[in-house]
Amino acid sequence: MNKKKLSFLQIWNMSFGFLGIQFGMALTGGFMSRIFQTLGAEIEDIPILWVAAPLTGLIVQPIIGYMSDRTWSPKWGRRRPYFLIGAILSSLALIIMPHSPTLWVAAGFLWVLDASINISMEPFRALVADKLPSSQRSYGFVIQTLIIGVGTWVASSLPWMVSQFGVSDSAASGIVPMSVKVAFTIGAVVFLLSILYTVFTTKEYPPEDMQAFEEEKAQKNRFVADILENIGNMPTIMKKLGVVQFFSWFAFFTMWSMANPALTEHVFKTPAPVEKEYVMSNPVQKAAFDVENTAFQKSSNEVGSYMGIYGLSSMAFALILVLYTRKRRINRKYIHMGSLILGGLGFILMYFIPSPEYLAISFILIGFAWGSILSMPYAMLSSAVNPTKMGVFMGIFNMFIVIPQIIAALGGINFVSNLLGEETINAMIVAGLSLIIAGLSNFLITEKNAITYQENN
């Protein structure tokens, strides 16, 4: 199919729903560990409580990709029905999540929320490749990254923002503060509205060969066989990018799960108080616990706000690339390599900073890596994928995102960081080293069309 070039506004409209998806991801990434700690989780148990998220992605994304490839409605298109279903479920989960009464309920809702986010997220990756000619794909994924950066920045700062309007950061033992509850509710509304905007402003191309599409769709009981066949036939570039993705996502999963306990303890000097160490029936000890808990909740707001900076810098990174890629080619390989190495240095710097305000430098550097992770691998991959199987291949590619997260959750973070010592901040050093390895792994990529797309004029 000869796809026409789209305007900036058209690409913006088709990508805008990612604002809501990123609200959901940033709220969970920035504050889920805080919720777990508030409900009584020990620091060493936090990674395993996150295991639901990548496990869900491993299962859901290939299924949704396969199903969306085989879906077509003249009114709703191919990918948009999945955006909408995922948005409704995600919004409900976001509202309920911070009201969880116990740790296991919160972990269960993280499972539900991540499954719902995956239903919306995977088809968005495929939509960019569906709608844009190869010459615009770097541009399209970068615009998507720009929107993701906005979402990360705003959502990560939401608890701090609402607390500035007088919403309380204090709460009784085992209760999530109202500032977090309000922030998650706002996130739910933004999630649904942004998805609706994309659904109603974007049209999709029908299958190029409708007869072949209907014949393939009519085949029964081919799901597992098709998935396995496509895994066996994945392009070489996907395997090479898989190595880069493995270390990239190990690093960011480490940040999402461990940054709050690591930074509140090492940088802010306000670790979460452990309730069992206090005699809560003693008024003096209860008062001491409440003071320390409020300090932890306030510094957690600050950590979230600083984490929002990586969304802001990824937005700036994306904006520069948007302006550049509109008219010029880029070397995706070296941009990705340099960005990941800078992000790795940002993580390592966290160990050495003398006061919290220097966290801004770390997260600016991390934002360069995040902006590149969200755009360059997908732009490189889309050059080598059969357009009729874009959804399922994007879903399979997600394996290289979730498998490292599963390994990290099942003990990888604790094992590697404990090699450096018992301090929680060592997890951030592990994240930094992992990102640097990811950056250097780009030397594996040699496919010229993946590295730099040459448009035929």
Can you walk me through this structure?
The protein is mainly α and 457 residues long. It has one domain (8-202, 228-451): Up-down Bundle (Growth Hormone, Chain: A), CATH 1.20.1250. The protein has 19 helices and no strands. The protein has helices at residues 8-15, 17-38, 46-49, 52-69, 80-96, 103-131, 137-164, 178-201, 210-218, 223-232, 236-266, 283-325, 332-349, 359-373, 376-382, 390-397, 399-420, 426-440, 448-451. Keywords: Membrane, Transmembrane, Transmembrane helix, Transport. It is a multi-pass membrane protein.
Strand content: under 5%
Q: How would you name the CATH homologous superfamily? A: MFS general substrate transporter like domains
Average pLDDT across residues? 84
Shape: globular
Strand count: 0
Q: Bin the helical content.
A: over 70%
Gross CATH architecture: Up-down Bundle
How far the N terminus sits from the C terminus, by CA atoms, comes to 17 Å
Radius of gyration, CA atoms, in whole angstroms: 22 Å
Low-confidence stretches: none
Could you tell me the CATH topology label. Answer: Growth Hormone, Chain: A
What is the count of DSSP helices, taking H or I runs of 4+ residues? 19
Along the chain, the helix and strand elements come as: HHHHHHHHHHHHHHHHHHH
CATH first level = Mainly Alpha
Number of domains: 1
| Main sheet makeup | none
Main location: membrane
Transmembrane segments: 12-36, 48-68, 80-97, 103-121, 141-162, 182-200, 241-259, 303-322, 334-353, 359-380, 392-413, 425-445
Membrane topology: Multi-pass membrane protein
Keywords: Membrane, Transmembrane, Transmembrane helix, Transport
